[in-house]
Design the sequence.
């Protein structure tokens, strides 16, 4: 049985153009357009043909980037606003945690606000009286409940709002990214409460940016993008698809600045190489004409999984035959820390010559860096260090990882436990 | 529409709690507190008394002594009417957070404004009664039985207009300013600071089209004038019209309901 059924739902929002914004009663009457003004004319389609089911007793996580329509969808399920087309049916009492403490009146006491807020959410006075102590202790506001709400800190305000909403004991609980507000202890309390609701067979829909929460708590996930459902089902699979898409977007963003690279003017080499900002300098007797990153799949990318293979390809062209050539690469973190740097000379090359064109491939078998964005230095220079062409931090790539460790380097490793130590869940 | 109306009935306790919240929150932090409910109409009365005894002594109707009590009979219900409408014109916008974020029948908000006004009106009644006793105005007990009905009719009429005004203001913020001026005109187009009989005969017909005219006349006849209550046929007609206004108001509100959350 389904607790929520969403069928081919579309939602149009009226977009306010400059003219419409000033459409007032007078102009509406003058042009006889009262009714037309109330109809969406320049519409923004927030949801396009969305359909899905949420079976009773399951937890659904809705993910997607900002502006994708997640919150609109949640509001429609909550009954705040009607879909432009399509149907939504929800079985049982709904409680929506969309904005906590909406409707609190600052001048009156926490106690009175709990009653009024509870009634707004559909409880009777008697039900609230029965749960009052639980609500107050959940919010941790025993000492302040008689004080006017305007004296509360924002944390207290939100905690009280959450405590009321979650004690409505809904059949369907809708949560819109509200867990981010409380302190650690309160967040744990909330998660415990969700777990309890799940045990009781209640249905929970969670809109969140915390993918971790979705993997831990949700039976299924729904990925909304631009008002349409991109993927739904097993949380791990949906999240992977989502992350892949986000990464592709980032990849495109990384490729773009390449074209805005500073014009190949001949700058002077800075005094301290490691303090230097990005730029390009050198005599240009030899030039690096192209830098590409090749991923494990063999195609050009700017995005790598931690531990994957990476190949850096340099196209080099010399104006005249050069007898002493050293080629170097360096990887820097965004903070400017040199993660790794090497050149042919350091590694023992006794000579190097270049004439015409050529390609250098620098292959890394395992890119054991932690997640983050990195910058690349590439250079062709003389054996005495005088550069022909030095690219300083001009090339960017990104490393993603499923685990979020600290630091820069991720040595291949494993954990082994013996004796009375039990650790579960490690890959 | 009927389903929505039934749902509204289920929210009765909320409406009552919100009214009491309105009342207790309004004067919180002020020195006089609840006392303002009494002081406000008194001060207003003082102003009109000053105008009609010191500034324009000739403008007061004849045979209406004490004139201040006569005016008070009309001013008190008018204050309820006008303040409720002014408040309901802003109540949806200022309570926008509720409408956008909480599933809850929005018509509760203008209804609460009207009911809170009713409570203030009731606070004013003892003062009026004190005046009536002090000036020894002869009261006909059987006439007083009409009073609850008059109040009820005014409640229905005010609610209907408040529903229209509140929903329209969301889409056209002009309504608020328009309403403030309209209410000033409406006040003078109602026999409150003058008796209906003093208006020129031609105008009397026009004034008769104003529903509040009959309400004001009813209040005056029941509370102030000696003699039997003669305006009851008109009062009942206004009562019928008020029901229609209220129904239309609810219908308009219901039609605009789904656009409210986006319009705020």
Sequence:
């Amino acid at each position: 049985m389904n607790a929520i059924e969403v069928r081919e739902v579309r939602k149009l929002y009226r977009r306010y153009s400059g003219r419409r914004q000033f459409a007032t009663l007078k102009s509406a009457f003058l042009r006889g357009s009262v009714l037309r003004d109330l109809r969406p004319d320049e519409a923004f389609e927030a949801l396009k043909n969305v359909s899905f089911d949420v079976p009773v007793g399951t937890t659904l996580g809705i993910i997607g980037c900002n502006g994708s329509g997640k919150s609109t969808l949640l509001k429609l399920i909550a009954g705040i606003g009607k879909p432009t087309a399509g149907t939504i049916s929800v079985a049982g009492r709904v409680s929506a945690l969309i904005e906590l403490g909406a409707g609190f009146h600052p001048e009156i006491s926490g106690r009175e606000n709990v009653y009024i807020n509870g009634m707004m959410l559909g409880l009777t006075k008697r039900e609230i009286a029965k749960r009052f102590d639980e609500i107050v202790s959940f919010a941790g506001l025993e000492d302040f409940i008689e004080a006017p709400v305007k004296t509360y800190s924002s944390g207290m305000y939100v905690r009280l709002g959450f405590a009321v909403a979650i004690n409505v004991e809904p059949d369907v609980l809708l949560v819109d990214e509200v867990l981010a507000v409380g302190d650690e202890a309160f967040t744990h309390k909330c998660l415990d409460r969700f777990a309890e609701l799940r045990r009781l067979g209640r249905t929970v829909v969670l809109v969140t940016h915390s993918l971790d929460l979705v993997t831990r708590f949700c039976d299924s996930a729904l990925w909304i993008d631009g008002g349409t459902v991109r993927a739904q089902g097993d949380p791990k699979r949906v999240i992977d698809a989502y992350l892949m898409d986000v990464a592709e977007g980032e990849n495109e963003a990384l490729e773009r600045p390449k074209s805005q690279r500073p014009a190949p003017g001949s700058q002077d080499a800075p005094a301290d190489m490691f303090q230097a900002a990005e730029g390009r300098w050198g005599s240009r007797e030899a030039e690096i004409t192209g830098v590409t990153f090749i991923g494990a799949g063999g195609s050009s990318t700017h995005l790598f999984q931690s531990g994957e293979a990476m190949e850096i390809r340099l196209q080099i062209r010399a104006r005249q035959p050069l007898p002493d050539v050293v080629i170097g690469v360096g990887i820097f973190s965004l903070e400017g820390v040199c993660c790794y740097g090497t050149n042919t000379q350091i590694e023992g090359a006794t000579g190097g010559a270049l004439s015409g064109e050529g390609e250098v491939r620098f292959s890394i078998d395992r890119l054991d860096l932690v997640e983050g964005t990195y910058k690349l230095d590439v250079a062709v220079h003389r054996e005495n260090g005088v550069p022909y062409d030095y690219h300083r931090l001009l090339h960017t790539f990104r490393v993603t990882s499923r685990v979020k460790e600290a630091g820069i380097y991720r040595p291949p490793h494993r954990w082994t436990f013996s004796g009375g130590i039990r650790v579960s869940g490690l890959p | 529409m009927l389903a929505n109306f039934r749902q509204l009935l289920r929210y009765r306790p909320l409406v009552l709690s919100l009214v009491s919240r309105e009342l207790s929150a309004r004067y919180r932090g002020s020195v006089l507190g609840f006392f303002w409910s009494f002081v406000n109409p008194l001060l207003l009365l003082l102003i009109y008394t000053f105008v009609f005894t010191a500034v324009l002594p000739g403008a007061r109707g004849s045979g209406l002594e004490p004139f201040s009590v006569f005016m008070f009979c009309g001013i008190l219900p008018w204050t309820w009417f006008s303040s409720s409408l002014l408040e309901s014109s802003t109540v949806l916008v200022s309570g926008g957070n509720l409408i956008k974020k909480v599933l809850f029948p929005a018509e509760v908000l203008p209804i609460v404004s009207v009911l809170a006004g009713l409570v203030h009106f009731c606070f004013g009644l003892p003062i009026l009664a004190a005046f009536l006793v002090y000036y020894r105005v002869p009261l006909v007990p059987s006439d007083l039985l009409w009073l609850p009905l008059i109040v009820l009719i005014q409640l229905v009429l005010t609610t209907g207009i408040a529903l229209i005004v509140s929903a329209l203001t969301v889409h056209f913020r002009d309504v608020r300013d328009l309403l403030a001026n309209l209410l000033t005109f409406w006040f003078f187009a109602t026999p409150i600071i003058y008796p209906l009989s003093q208006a020129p005969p031609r105008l009397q017909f026009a004034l008769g089209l104003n529903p509040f005219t009959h309400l004001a006349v009813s209040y005056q006849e029941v509370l102030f004038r000696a003699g039997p209550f003669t305006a009851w046929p008109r009062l009942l007609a206004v009562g019928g019209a008020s029901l229609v206004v209220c129904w239309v108001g609810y219908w308009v509100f219901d039609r605009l309901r789904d656009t409210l959350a986006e319009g705020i």
User: Anything to note?
Assistant: Residues 265-400 of chain A form a domain with the Coagulation Factor XIII; Chain A, domain 1 fold (CATH 2.70.50.60).
